Automatic annotation (TrEMBL):
GO terms for biological process: phospholipid translocation. Belongs to the TRIAP1/MDM35 family. InterPro entries: MDM35_apoptosis (IPR007918). The keyword Ubl conjugation does not apply. It catalyses: a 1,2-diacyl-sn-glycero-3-phosphate(in) = a 1,2-diacyl-sn-glycero-3-phosphate(out). Transmembrane segments: none annotated. It comes from Musca domestica (House fly). GO terms for molecular function: phosphatidic acid transfer activity. One of its GO terms (cellular component) is nucleus. Coiled coil: none annotated. This is TP53-regulated inhibitor of apoptosis 1. Keywords: Disulfide bond.
């Protein structure tokens, strides 16, 4: 699967590869220190944020729907 932004696809592939290695070689063996992929994740995250801005996607809309655990609640700005 590609990333939200075309410019982020290579970063996503690198992060996915790092995550898969960490998960299989460390996490499944009891090591839950996830700092191994943190640097590439940070760069990838910034790329995705930039792509979201360019596509006029607001993170707070996504967070309002999912981070609270209330998946039926609409973001504040869309409530009537």
């Amino acid at each position: 699967m590609n990333s939200l932004g075309e410019d982020c696809n290579e970063l996503k592939r690198k992060y996915d590869a790092c995550f898969n290695l960490w998960f299989s070689e460390r996490f499944l063996k009891g090591d839950n220190d996830d700092s191994m992929c943190a640097p590439i994740f940070k760069v990838y995250q910034e790329c995705v944020k930039k792509a979201m801005e360019e596509q006029k996607i607001e993170l707070r809309e996504i967070e309002a729907d999912y981070s609270t655990g209330d998946y039926n609640e609409k973001p504040e700005h869309s409530k009537s």
